[in-house]
């Protein structure tokens, strides 16, 4: 039974965490790491339909991420309409063409060559869903006034991490796409003035023939420092 009480007049519930023995923790953490390490960014999507309920559950999972003062400063816009996806692709490719042909310095282009990316973004129309995460720079209250949000960038970053994990858990593929600048998404999707595009994520099944770069992630001694 969940216990409840009030602290300074605010409701609290008891946190009933599940605990494990040390061997069980080691096993569970190792299994989770090996499962998550299989996640890859894909660019070859199938147009096979994905149940709407799956996308809803994925977004609810992402929305369970922590946020500054629990303001949850995000909006997940889900696009499946072919006409809107086509419009987004046209706008994104216009920006990406300029990036690959003058905006990005040579060092950046060199770093991208092993990934074999270019300004063509067919996946924006092929993937059955595009999830665009918008960051709220402030709240819009019902009385028309502005409310403060805290650590909006960090909060949205956490939610996007949860989102990608939930997508992987559902057996789907995803791509973190950031056409720069992304302001065209505000116009295409008619978002309010307090929302700015944070990340564009195509979601769907991998294509029957889907290739990803053969990459190695950094080992523990390159990503962690122990004190």
State the CATH topology.
NADH Oxidase
Radius of gyration: 20 Å
Strand order across the largest sheet: 3-4-8-7
Helices and strands: which structural class? alpha+beta
Percent strand equals 15-25%
Written as H for each helix and E for each strand, in order along the chain, the element string is EEHHEHHHEEEHEHEH
Net shape: globular
Low-confidence stretches: none
Helical content stands at 25-40%
The CATH architecture classification is 3-Layer(aba) Sandwich
Mean pLDDT: 96
Number of domains: 1
| End-to-end gap | 40 Å
Description:
- This protein has 227 residues and is an alpha+beta fold.
- The protein has a single domain, classed as NADH Oxidase, CATH 3.40.109.10.
- 38% of the residues lie in helices and 17% in strands.
- The strands form three sheets. A four-stranded antiparallel beta sheet has the order 3-4-8-7.
How are the SSEs ordered, and which strands pair?
Layout: E1 4-7, E2 10-13, H1 22-36, H2 52-62, E3 74-79, H3 82-103, H4 106-112, H5 123-126, E4 129-136, E5 139-140, E6 146-147, H6 152-169, E7 173-174, H7 184-189, E8 195-204, H8 220-223
Helix pairs in contact: 2-6
In short:
With 227 residues, the protein is α+β, with helices and mostly antiparallel strands. Helices cover 38% and strands 17% of the residues. The chain has one domain: NADH Oxidase, CATH 3.40.109.
List keywords for this structure.
NADH Oxidase; 227 residues; alpha+beta; globular; two-stranded antiparallel ribbon; single chain; 17% strand; 8 strands; 4-stranded antiparallel sheet
């Amino acid at each position: 039974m969940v216990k409840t009480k009030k602290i300074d007049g605010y409701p609290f519930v008891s946190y009933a965490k599940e605990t494990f023995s040390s061997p069980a923790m080691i096993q569970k953490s190792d299994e989770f790491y090996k499962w998550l390490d299989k996640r890859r960014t894909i660019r070859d999507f199938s147009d096979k339909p994905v149940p709407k309920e799956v996308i809803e559950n994925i977004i609810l999972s992402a929305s369970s991420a922590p946020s500054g003062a629990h303001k949850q400063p995000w909006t997940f816009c889900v696009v499946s309409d072919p006409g809107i996806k086509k419009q987004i692709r046209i706008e994104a490719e216009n920006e990406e063409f300029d990036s690959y042909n003058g905006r990005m310095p040579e060092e950046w282009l060199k770093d991208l060559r092993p990934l074999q990316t270019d300004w063509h973004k067919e996946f924006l129309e092929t993937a059955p869903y595009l999830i665009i995460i918008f960051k709220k720079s402030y709240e819009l209250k019902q009385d028309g006034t502005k409310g403060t949000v805290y650590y909006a960038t960090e909060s949205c970053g956490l939610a996007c991490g949860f989102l990608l994990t939930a997508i992987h858990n559902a057996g789907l593929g995803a791509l973190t796409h950031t056409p720069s600048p992304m302001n065209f998404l505000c116009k295409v999707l008619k978002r309010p003035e307090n929302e700015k595009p944070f990340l564009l994520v195509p979601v769907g099944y991998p294509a029957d023939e889907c290739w990803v770069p053969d990459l190695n992630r950094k080992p523990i001694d390159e990503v962690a420092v122990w004190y």
